C-alpha cells in the first residue's frame, strides 16, 4: 500500500469538492464519502494506493484541495516489492490531485465582507505535467502503469520514461540482456527491455528459460529435464522422452522402471541479491490426451511409498541443504521444495547444484514424469506452490 500525506498547515476554509465523470477514470476508485471538513486547527491531505486488491488504485482525499501552503508531501512506500521512502514537493502532488479527476470542479467561496475570493478551476487529465505523472509511476507496479497509460496522451508519454522502468528492472538486467537476448543493453529503451525480459526467454540450447515476474520484476528460472544428468536416461528400457503440452519445454522424461533413481542438475547464473527457492516439478503417472480429454495412466506407478526421495541443494558460496519427502498425488503435477539459497551483493555469479535420488536397490520404482526445476524468489513460495 502506498500512502501520501500532507501535513503542518493551517485549517483551510472548506467549501465543496465534487468529482464528475468518475466512470471514465478506470482503474481509479474514488471514495466520495471520505471527504469531510475538519473542525480542528489543522487538517491533512492523504492519498492511499493499494495495488494488491485486484490491481485497482484506491484514492482517499480528506480535507480541502485549495489554499494549501507550500509544505512538503511525504510519500511512504509500503509495497512488499519496494522499500523506498521519498519526499516530494507538495506542489507536484497538489497539481496531480487538482488535475487528475477528469473534469473535476473545485470551488471555494468566502464571505465578501471578510475578504471574499471566488476561485473556479476546470481542467482535465491532459493538463497534468508528464514529469509529475512519471514521479508517481515510479511507485506503481508495471501492470498499473500500463493501465493508466491508456487514459490519455500525457499518461502514455509519462509511461515511456526510462527512469520509471529502470526502477522495475532487476539489478542484473544488463547481464540478462546480453546473455539471454543477445543484445546491447544500451540499444533498447527500458520499457522495451522490461517487456522482453518478462517474456519467457530460452538459453543454453533451449533447455533453460528465464523471465521476470511482470508485477514485481523479480527473476524466475526453469531448467528442463534434458539439461539434467539422469541415471539410465539413454536406456529405453528405463526412460523415455515423451511430448506433452503440460510442460514449458513441450517434453518430459518418463521413468518406466529402475532400481537406481538419480537426477542431478547444475546452473551457473548471475542472480540479483535476494532469497530464492528451488522446486522439482514431478508427476506420478503418464499423462496423455484421448479424444481431446486428459487421461493419466497409473499402471506403472510403484515403489515411491516404500522409501522417501532425498532432495539436495548446494551453492558455490558453501550453502548446503538436504531433505526427504514421499512422492504423492498421482495424476497431478506437484512442486517439491528442494531448498532455499541466498544471494548477496558480493556474489555476482553463483553456481548451484540440485539433485533428487532414491537409490535403495531393494525395490524398483517407476511411473514418474520429471519435467523441470523451477527457481523462484522465496516470497513466491506460499503464493504459487501452496
From TrEMBL:
InterPro entries: F-box-like_dom_sf (IPR036047), F-box_dom (IPR001810), PP2-like (IPR025886)
F-box domain segment(s): 122-168
SUPFAM superfamilies: F-box domain
PANTHER family: F-BOX PROTEIN PP2-A14, F-BOX PROTEIN PP2-A15
The protein's name: F-box protein PP2-A11
Organism: Gossypium hirsutum
